[in-house]
């Protein structure tokens, strides 16, 4: 593991994580892309008091890491957000902005130096905070009606191989028919899986939540259409989430018993 070289440029845009006894545990990691034309423009905006936005860290394409907000403070990165029944996720999360022009300015692959730095930074954060794998998310997972970052080119499988977040490898033995619609029963099951994984699922958000799921777990096509392949993938991810939640519950019960 390479040592992290973190530069500091403090943003004024942060607040309290809450007042005792109502402080929620810090147990979530949210990954973003900056979606601006340059790293300098993104850093300027994230540090501009008038913009009222920020993140704890920014990772440039050459791998340079900036710290903008102390982890003990609440950065303003997630906005209106929802995951696994919980809202206002800035209170419980650390936010990392990854420099990329995004879909508006010429979305492009994340370079190796940048991914290595993201991986190192995430490892470092996960070593210091108890963040379960099913609570490492993209901005589009928690705000699918407004956001598409970090997007379909982001290498989630690589991070999962390094122990960061969940990305179960697709089971090649299962039938997958992309583009074909599914019946009512399969559709109901698919949407239940989507909600169980953590997405906000209602009549209004169903299609955008499906597209967010696809960007992350089936990135070849993110049309928000519930086809057979998406249904199969939803079940795989749901099972991975449930297995990780069971492991986390076991760990917590052991911790309570012996401490
Ligand atoms: Zn974002």
What brief labels describe this structure?
globular; binds zinc ion; six-stranded mixed beta sheet; 8 helices; two-stranded antiparallel ribbon; alpha/beta; 259 residues; single chain
In this structure, how is the largest beta sheet organized?
A: 6 strands, mixed
How many angstroms does the end-to-end distance come to? Answer: 31 Å
Q: What is the chain-wise order of helices and strands?
A: EEEHEEEEEEHHEHHHHH
| Gyration radius from CA atoms, angstroms | 18 Å
The ligands found in this model are: zinc ion
Question: Which ranges are low-confidence, i.e. pLDDT below 50, for 5 or more consecutive residues?
Answer: none
Strand content: 5-15%
Number of helical elements: 8
Total count of strands: 10
Tell me the helix content.
25-40%
What best-fitting shape do the alpha-carbon axes yield? globular
The largest beta-sheet arranges its strands as 1-5-4-9-3-10
> Helix- and strand-based class?
alpha/beta
Mean pLDDT, to the nearest integer, reads 95
What kind of assembly state do the chains in view correspond to?
single chain
Describe what this molecule looks like in 3D:
The strands form 3 sheets. The protein has a 6-stranded mixed beta sheet. It is built from 8 helices and 10 strands. The chain is of the alpha/beta class and 259 residues long. A hairpin with a 5-residue loop joins strand 4 and strand 5. The structure holds zinc ion. Zinc ion binds at residues 32, 139, 147, 149.
